[in-house]
Amino acid sequence: MMSKTLYDKLWESHVVHVEEDGTALLYIDRHLIHEVTSPQAFDGLRLAGRKAWRPSSIVSTPDHNTPTDHWDEGITDPISRQQVETLDANIGEFGALAYYPFKDPRQGIAHVVGPENGATLPGMTVVCGDSHTATHGAFACLAHGIGTSEVEHVLATQCLLQKKMKAMLVQVDGKLGKGVTAKDIILAVIGRIGTAGGTGYAIEFAGSTIRGLSMEGRMTVCNMAIEAGARVGFVAVDETTIDYLRGRPFAPKGELFDKAAAYWRTLKSDEGAQFDRVLHFNAAEIQPQVTWGTSPEMVMTINDNIPDPAKEKDAGKREGMERALQYMGLTPNAPIQSVKIDKVFIGSCTNGRIEDLREAAAVLKGRHIAANVKLAMVVPGSGLVKRQAEAEGLDKVFIAAGCEWREPGCSMCLAMNADRLEPGERCASTSNRNFEGRQGPGGRTHLLSPGMAAAAAIAGHFADVRDIM
Amino acid sequence: MDKFVRLDGLVVPIDRNNIDTDAIIPKQFLKSIKRSGFGPNAFDEWRYMDVGEPGQECTHRPKNPNFALNQPRYQGAQILLTRQNFGCGSSREHAPWALLDFGFRVIVAESFADIFFNNCFKNGILPIILPANEVGEMVRQVEATPGYKLTVDLPAQTVTRPDGRVLNFTIDPFRKECLLNGWDDIGLTLRHAEKIREFEARRRFEQPWLFA
Ligand code: SF4
Question: What is the torsional sign of CA A293, A344, A226, B11?
């Protein structure tokens, strides 16, 4: 029998039909829905007089627009409120397995909510009108971010039209250094292959370092596969996966769990399976990362100096660097550690889980944010994460350090709610995109790990978390 | 969806790599629950000198004169010419909606991000990939030639330059068929409804935990 990659297995187990040119209909097991990319899809269904094919595949929660403070006042921005209320009404009309509305104890970022409720199970196809759906690949799922027309397509047909991608293996082996985390791994990968390096590929993350990561860490890595250009990224099932799922609300129970787990254990690439591209990373060589530019591939290690476009031979790249440095207000060749920050954002679907908050709190404990830091926000990824953190007393650590402890949501990851940067402000952010204006028009975003964000908050400038651990 | 067959259209270049969907349509405009009306805010942060708000009338906002889309010679352009990895980042379909609403029916680039590429076909926009040297040459020609038009022929899969040079491009036969006929994917997929139901029934039997 031919050896198969995990991608082959996930793909083959979902093909309903194939067109002559290879375009396949893939059956979708789980559909996550949030308020921003779904209204037009539900409208389309209504216009065509269609129903949702399988409402029990749907798990939904508003996240992008919800405020992170003053919940007693509701959603004060009328346009945001309309979008959230539209979701309430659409789910009311079309149905869902679970809906966590605004202020529900389980509300949060869709990519945090799915896994923690056991609604993301190995071997599933998962879709969401959101590019960071790749996050669910941590559970050996084929998890695609889709556009709104595709949201409507999945609602109406329970299928997605897809062509099979090429397979890439990102193999990370060895022991991570102290203070180096999953976020540093994925930023280093993006730094090497570039934001288009994974275009057209499905990436499997493997190797001893990946196996050594918790589910939270694996989610952080898969989450940013899209920042490497790959629509999907995933990790094989092992006991870490299975242990995480036991006892979660939508995970199977008792004998059924054991039966499911036996199947889940087959979800890995076979010995000798062939990949179209293979990349190796040595974990011991990965240093804490921080981005300097306006694309996640513009990334450097914390002990380096800001790159100099004059040393870049490729004219196109040089121009891109110059434009980015100008937007970011940075001087070539200066140490990144000399750059002062205005704000800190700890949260998002990349780093808003309990482990991320623990990592940041461990650094902030007994310390205080620097005087020049105007705001350090800690935004848990979900209501469950928030209550877990409070049970562990992490909220008190953050507040004592001078941080704001907020309600869950996407928040300043994309600044659709009131949380945003002012023009020219510089932010140390645990989110996933540093595009121009991402955190507010004219805002300057530097991506890094939760520990590194905490270190920057204390120092008032970028700093090496290893120096204060 | 509107059909796409042939187009003889004015070209505007945006000579940059990695143009992301946040740049194509900034997030404040994603609050709309409609599919249309995004055109005036396409490339909002690059096009205007002030910060745009949803629902705002755009005709009197201060425009950035250096941005190609604002220059008189490019008014009425239907073909956007750009470089590598166009449409990267967020999956927001508001990006192709904004480009379509602005008037673009074709985007020519060296490469596209996957989700964006896919979203174009769902909205009757034809994304065309051409080799870097051809794109580079075209950018130079457009900048040097006011009124520069390209003729795009989908059945023949060709782009013809004003100087008569014909470039071929590739496209999936299935996507081509859908664009040529203006077919809606959902209608096409539902022809297989019986197959989907059979697949689902088997799955429900083999992996009942997926159907809790
Ligand atoms: S946290 Fe950020 S990246 Fe994640 S879903 Fe929300 S807006 Fe998107």
Answer: negative
What's the token pair of residue A163?
């062509």
Residue with tokens 């650094």: A363
Q: Do B87 and B55 reside in the same domain of the chain?
A: yes
**Mutate-to-test residue for ligand 1 from A432, A434, A438, A445, highest number of ligand atoms within 8 A of CB:** A432
Cα B110 to Cα B134: distance, rounded to the nearest angstrom:
9
Q: Residue A183: what are its φ and ψ, rounded to 5°?
A: -60, -40
Q: What are the pLDDT digits (tens) for A236-248?
A: 999 999 999 999 9
Which tokens go with A193?
Answer: 């292959």
Judged by DSSP in three states, A66 sits in: coil
Give Cα B209 distance to the centre of its chain.
40
pLDDT score recorded for residue A315: 87
Could you tell me the residue range of the domain that residue B62 belongs to?
A: 6-181
Q: What is the CATH number of the domain that holds B71?
A: 3.20.19.10
Q: Per the domain annotation, does B1 fall within a domain? A: no
Nearest chain A Cα distance for residue B131, angstroms: 15
Which residues lie across from A267 on neighbouring strands?
none
Examine the domain organization and report whether B108 and B120 are in the same domain.
yes
Model confidence band, residue A12 (pLDDT cutoffs 50, 70, 90): very high
DSSP A249: T
- CA B119 to chain centroid, in Å, comes to 8
Per DSSP, the three-state class of A79 is helix
Residue A438: which of B22, B96, B189 has the nearest Cβ?
Answer: B22
Please report where in the chains the tokens 């939508």 appear, as a residue.
Answer: A250
Rounded to 5, what percent of chain A is helix, strand, coil?
Answer: 40, 15, 45
pLDDT at B85: 95
Provide the shortest C-alpha distance from residue B209 to chain A (in Å): 6
If asked whether residues B99 and B172 sit together in one domain, one would say: yes
Domain membership flag for residue B125? yes
Instruction: Using alpha carbons, list the distances in angstroms from residue B14 to A204, B66, B139.
Output: 34, 11, 9
Q: Which residue did the predictor score with more confidence, A424 or A48?
A: A424
Ramachandran region of residue A168, left (φ > 0), alpha (ψ -120 to 50) or beta?
beta
Taking alpha carbons only, the member of A354, A386, A374 closest to residue A71 is A386
